């Protein structure tokens, strides 16, 4: 065995200690631009994920010298759509939104492909004891919102708005019939007046609950300010997660 092969083997064992390694076992197109990717394996069991959390996926090879030239192309963050800690399987929903490293990685995935990622993380998670729950976001937030909706008990009070460009872009959200589902058409999702107006139109109880607001940074900010300034909510009752904004690859 050559020195390069031995180093590669040692390197991969080292990465397996630091990160979770699984295998793609199923791929399904759930919208025209979104693929559901199921990843399984022994290392995927018992990860302790909370609804709304995300994982950092290696969309490039950390052992490749090319990654040292463009380290920003190595990782992309995806919210966990579904997880079974006993069986050891989780679903990620990967959006095809152009020619970036994450989009190319998602398009190239095939069943049997190895995937390496970090353990679930993040504080944008469900607060199950809240008196009621308000959700607001667009396509990039819909996966985290869907995971939280699916985890709520049947008697939990739910309000919210999830914006998409077209009806075909809507994910199959649990309790989606209880949400407003505005369409922005060809308008930008950045600083979205469509989503803000939909949240303004929600008939909420007088007392604040917990709001989960995610997606484009300026839209997230405007909705938070509406809830805090116009409706008088405490800032701690509005959980926010800006995933992106124009001109930036990510907000992580």
Automatic annotation (TrEMBL):
Q: Name one Pfam family in it.
A: SIP
InterPro entries named in the record: FAD-bd_FR_type (IPR017927), FNR_nucleotide-bd (IPR039261), Riboflavin_synthase-like_b-brl (IPR017938), SIP_FAD-bd (IPR013113), SIP_fam (IPR039374), SIP_rossman_dom (IPR007037)
Name the SUPFAM superfamilies on file: Riboflavin synthase domain-like
Q: Where is the FAD-binding FR-type domain?
A: 17-127
Named from the GO MF annotations, one term is: oxidoreductase activity
Protein known as:
NADPH-dependent ferric siderophore reductase
Query: Organism source for this protein?
Result: Embleya scabrispora
């Amino acid at each position: 065995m050559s020195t390069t092969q031995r180093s590669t083997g040692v390197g991969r064992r080292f990465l397996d200690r630091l990160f979770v390694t699984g295998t793609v076992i199923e791929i399904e197109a759930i919208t025209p631009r979104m693929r559901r990717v199921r990843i399984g394996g022994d290392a995927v069991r018992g990860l302790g994920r909370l609804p709304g959390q995300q994982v950092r996926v290696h969309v490039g090879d950390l052992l490749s010298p090319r990654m040292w030239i463009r380290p920003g192309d190595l990782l992309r963050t995806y919210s966990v759509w579904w997880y079974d800690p006993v069986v050891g399987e989780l679903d990620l929903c990967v959006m095809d939104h152009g020619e970036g490293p994450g989009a190319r990685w998602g398009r190239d995935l095939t069943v049997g492909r190895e995937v390496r990622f970090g353990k679930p993380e993040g504080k944008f998670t469900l607060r199950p004891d809240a008196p009621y729950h308000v959700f607001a976001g667009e396509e990039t937030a819909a996966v985290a919102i869907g995971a939280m909706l699916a985890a709520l008990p049947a008697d939990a009070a739910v309000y919210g708005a999830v914006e998409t460009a077209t009806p075909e872009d809507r994910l199959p959200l649990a309790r989606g019939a209880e949400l407003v589902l505005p369409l922005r058409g060809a308008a930008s999702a950045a600083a979205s007046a469509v989503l803000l107006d939909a949240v303004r139109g929600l008939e909420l109880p007088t007392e604040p609950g917990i709001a989960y607001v995610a997606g484009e940074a300026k839209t997230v900010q405007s909705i938070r300010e509406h809830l805090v300034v116009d409706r008088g909510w405490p800032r701690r009752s509005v959980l926010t997660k800006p995933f992106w904004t124009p001109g930036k690859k990510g907000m992580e």
